[in-house]
């Protein structure tokens, strides 16, 4: 027996990013082409191949969380709390008037508590196993952010984490959408958080040859689609969305940022870290999302790409877009906001989803900055360096992760 599909909308957003710690600050930076990249300040990176990143500047956990609780949270969890608090406040939901069992949380992280991991590893090496903190595991595990959000707000609906590397938070949004479709909740908090600018993370990504090493020009190092791109710039931060049905949002007079019109997911089944060279999995994810939305490819106005500035990844995604959109690929506006925020790993998808919603609401396509020499194989409009005014009725957001995980969301104006 088929079930009538519900219309799911976004009524609250919260974000912490290297270029803004609110939706307003984020949009001001993205629409003006501001880079968040600079030298690493969290540790001495002198001996590292990469010595810069997009750090979350001027974040003070105690502005959001009491001191004792903050001390028992890894930064990724602190960020998650701050972003979800923003989103819930923005939504206008009165949680005291809602059955707590009808409010769920799906909130993920690609790496979890890497700062805690690095700190406790040093404790073990210098002082031995008996000096490891009893909070080590609860601070480390990626699902703890979802748990902490639920405990903070007494939310007793479905509660878990997604973990699919850099597709993590898009999968969290997809899962939240599905839970609402199934009637398992009336409201969902969803998104992702990451705080992986640590010695072990940077060294690990350097070993995988994934990071840019343009240490002399950090603010220009994140350069998707440029001929001289040499890897991504690590970023950090968090994002959160509040989802509910259109019926619910209208009944309570909520501000609606947009509707989730379609979702798609797939696997490359190809390689641990490299994308399928023809973007086969990305094609499937985008096609599924279009089918879910019930629209043709020609209706997509803007695509926020995964666009990490890796030589292989950027080309594979553009190939996939051209296969899915056909001739319309040459009319759609495309950009990678990772050129400004850096790559927020598991938090990238939700932060870029917020960008899509803000682009739709403002009628502006944010640019892909740092394109000095466009890759000759890129023959579509990637909005180089300068924002573009455009009516955006449908926007598409892609996210791909190590392991061949692919996710796509399509947003619709309301």
Overall description:
The protein has 414 residues and is of the alpha/beta class. It has two domains: 9-251, Thiolase/Chalcone synthase (Peroxisomal Thiolase, Chain A, domain 1, 3-Layer(aba) Sandwich), CATH 3.40.47; 263-412, Peroxisomal Thiolase, Chain A, domain 1 (3-Layer(aba) Sandwich), CATH 3.40.47. The protein is 33% helix and 18% strand. The protein is built from 13 helices and 14 strands. It has helices at 23-32, 67-71, 75-91, 114-127, 136-140, 144-153, 168-181, 199-207, 246-251, 280-293, 311-325, 338-341, 348-362, and strands spanning 8-16, 38-39, 52-53, 103-108, 159-160, 187-194, 237-245, 258-267, 302-304, 333-335, 364-365, 388-389, 394-401, 405-412. A ten-stranded mixed β-sheet has the order 5-4-6-7-1-8-14-13-9-10, with helices on both faces. Helix 11 (311-325) links the parallel strand 9 and strand 10. Helix 1 (23-32) packs across helix 13, helix 3 packs across helix 6 and helix 7 packs across helix 13 (348-362). It is globular.
Task: Please render the helix and strand layout as text.
Layout: E1 8-16, H1 23-32, E2 38-39, E3 52-53, H2 67-71, H3 75-91, E4 103-108, H4 114-127, H5 136-140, H6 144-153, E5 159-160, H7 168-181, E6 187-194, H8 199-207, E7 237-245, H9 246-251, E8 258-267, H10 280-293, E9 302-304, H11 311-325, E10 333-335, H12 338-341, H13 348-362, E11 364-365, E12 388-389, E13 394-401, E14 405-412
Parallel strand pairs: 4-5, 4-6, 9-10, 9-13
Antiparallel strand pairs: 1-7, 1-8, 2-3, 6-7, 8-14, 11-12, 13-14
Helix pairs in contact: 1-13, 3-6, 7-13, 10-11
């Amino acid at each position: 027996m088929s079930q009538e599909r519900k219309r799911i909308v976004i009524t609250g957003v919260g974000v912490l990013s290297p270029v803004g710690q609110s939706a307003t600050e984020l949009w001001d930076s993205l629409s003006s082409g501001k880079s968040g990249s600079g030298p690493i300040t969290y540790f001495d990176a002198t001996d590292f191949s990469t010595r810069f990143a997009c750090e979350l500047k001027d974040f003070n956990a105690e502005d959001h969380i009491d001191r004792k609780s903050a001390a028992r949270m890894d930064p990724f969890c602190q960020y998650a709390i701050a972003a979800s608090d923003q989103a819930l406040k923005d939504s206008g939901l009165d949680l005291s008037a809602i059955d707590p069992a009808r409010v769920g949380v799906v909130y993920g992280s690609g790496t979890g508590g890497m700062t805690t991991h690095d700190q406790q590893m040093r404790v073990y090496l210098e002082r031995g196993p008996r000096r490891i903190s009893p909070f080590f595991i609860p601070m480390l595990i990626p699902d703890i952010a979802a748990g902490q959000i639920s405990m903070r707000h007494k939310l007793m609906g479905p509660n878990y984490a997604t973990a699919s590397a850099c597709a993590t938070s898009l999968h969290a949004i997809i899962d939240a959408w599905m839970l609402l479709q199934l009637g398992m909740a009336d409201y969902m908090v969803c998104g992702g958080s990451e705080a992986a600018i640590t010695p072990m993370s940077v060294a690990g990504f350097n070993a995988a040859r994934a990071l840019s090493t343009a240490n002399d020009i950090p603010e220009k190092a994140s350069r998707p689609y440029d001929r001289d791109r040499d890897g991504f710039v690590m970023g950090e931060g968090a994002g959160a969305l509040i989802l509910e049905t259109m019926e619910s949002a209208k009944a309570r007079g909520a501000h609606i940022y947009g509707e989730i019109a379609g979702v798609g997911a797939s696997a490359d089944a190809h390689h641990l870290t490299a994308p399928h060279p023809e973007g086969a999995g990305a094609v499937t994810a985008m096609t599924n999302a279009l089918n879910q939305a019930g629209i043709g490819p020609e209706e997509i106005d803007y695509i926020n790409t995964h666009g990490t500035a890796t030589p292989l990844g950027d080309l594979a995604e553009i190939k996939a877009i051209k296969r899915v959109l056909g001739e319309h690929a040459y009319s759609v506006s495309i950009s990678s906001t990772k050129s400004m925020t850096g790559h927020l790993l598991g938090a990238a998808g939700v932060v870029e989803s917020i960008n899509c919603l803000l682009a739709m609401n403002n009628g502006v396509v944010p640019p892909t900055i740092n394109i000095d020499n466009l890759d000759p194989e890129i023959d579509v409009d990637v909005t180089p360096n300068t924002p573009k005014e455009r009516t955006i009725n449908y926007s598409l957001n892609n996210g791909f992760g190590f392991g061949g995980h692919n996710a796509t969301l399509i947003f619709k104006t309301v």
